[in-house]
Design brief:
Layout lengths: L1 E4 H6 L1 H9 L4 E5 L2 E6 L31 H9 L3
Parallel strand pairs: 1-2
Antiparallel strand pairs: 2-3
């Protein structure tokens, strides 16, 4: 693992961060003593891919679904509610 002093790290931060993102971890030292270890963050993986029909069998659709509330909706449009 490479080691860089803090002055060098400040001067070349962009380049060092790019290298770390590619998997090249490194240490930053101050007066020869290790201060921090820089490593790439792992991208958060989605727990599961959503799929169509994932609730199949868990819900039911009423037979009158297409006409449910038709009378109430008609009254709302006519201003009679």
């Amino acid at each position: 693992m490479r080691t860089y002093n803090i002055h060098f790290a400040k001067t070349h931060l962009s380049r060092l961060v790019e290298a770390a993102a590619k998997g090249e971890a490194f240490l930053i030292t101050k007066a020869g003593k290790p201060m921090v270890k820089v490593v790439a963050c792992k991208a958060r993986e989605s727990s599961r891919t959503q799929r169509f029909g994932f609730m199949a069998g868990q819900i039911t659709v009423p037979d009158d679904f297409n006409t449910m509330g038709a009378d109430e909706i008609q009254q709302l449009f006519e201003g009679k509610a």
